[in-house]
Specification:
Number of strands: 2
Number of helices: 14
Shape: elongated
Distance between the termini: 39 Å
Strand content: under 5%
Strand order of the largest sheet: 1-2
Order of helices and strands: HEHHHHHHHHHHHHEH
Structural class: mainly alpha
């Protein structure tokens, strides 16, 4: 009889715990929907006067924004995922090689500008062998609408020759090998590893650097600082797409000069003091609730 009572108590305790987790998961889903709805309606937040925004950005760059909790970070990426489940990079490419070339060309240029130049280039050369045969002068002529096109044309030919000589004409699935290529740095390597090979890397460009500091999500004085912090705080299940969500958010919402806080899906979570949220963050999310809400 005592054993039955003990089993009954354990069963009741388990059900009670499951019930609490379920209720928290429901609250988490409700909070996510509220954040998305406010952004869609354009009333998620209001910007403060320009002077207050400038002061807020200065505080953010000095790392003076409050830190995020794990629950807040989980909720932020839950919202990004709900709003855009399968984010994609905006550079047009055909294969890993053309992706690599496109990313090299995008340095200090816009994706839109690169996308205008690369269709003609890739129609003639979509492999390292074809690119080398095309020649630097022809490449230069095809990409002359892109900034720093002379240097970039030289790098494209040089990296193509190195791919042929050292990697059998294939883009290597290795960070060190990628960064050894002309015109390829850590950011470019991260983009290629993420998009071409499905690695959960985070390429920190000007947009992600701004978001990391402005929101307080991943403050840092250098792109590498921000990258390391993001890899530390972004939940593993969201890490593969985190790079795209953050870049797109910075490109279209969290703009440098005038952030569109009224359309921001994470406005109530963001720590930037240059805005006033129109509804408070009613987070009642725990790791257990987040785990249950899959």
């Amino acid at each position: 009889m005592a054993r039955k009572t003990s089993k009954l108590k354990k069963s009741t305790a388990v059900k009670s715990r499951q019930g609490r987790i379920s209720r928290k998961a429901v609250k988490a889903r409700k909070t996510t929907k509220q954040g998305l709805a406010a952004a869609r309606k354009g009333n998620a937040a209001r910007l403060k006067p320009v002077k207050a925004q400038i002061k807020a950005d200065a505080k953010a760059l000095h790392g003076e924004t409050p830190p995020w909790t794990k629950a807040e970070i989980e909720e932020a990426f839950r919202r990004f995922a709900a709003a855009n489940p399968e984010p994609r990079g905006e550079l047009h490419h055909i294969n890993p090689y053309t992706l690599l070339v496109a990313v090299v060309l995008s340095a200090q240029a816009t994706d839109a500008g690169v996308n205008k130049a690369t269709p003609a280039l890739f129609a003639l050369a979509d492999t390292p062998e074809k690119m080398v045969k095309l020649g630097e002068a022809r490449v230069r002529d095809l990409i002359k609408t892109i900034g720093l096109y002379r240097t970039k044309a030289k790098n494209v030919i040089a990296l193509s020759e190195m791919l042929i000589a050292q990697h059998g004409g294939k883009v290597p699935h290795d960070r060190d090998a990628l960064e050894a290529l002309p015109g390829v740095g850590r950011k470019t390597a991260n983009v290629v590893l993420n998009i071409a090979f499905g690695e959960p890397t985070i390429a920190v460009d000007t947009h992600i650097f701004r978001i990391g500091n402005r929101t307080g999500l991943a403050p840092g004085k250098t792109p590498l600082d921000v990258e390391m912090k993001l890899l530390e705080v972004v939940p593993e299940k969201y890490r593969l797409h985190a790079h795209h969500w953050l870049i797109l958010h910075g490109r279209y919402v969290c703009l440098a000069r005038r952030p569109l806080c009224e359309k921001c899906v994470i406005a109530d979570l963001c720590k930037w003091p240059g805005k006033t949220t129109n509804f408070p963050a009613t987070l009642a999310v725990t790791s257990s609730a987040a785990a249950a809400d899959k």
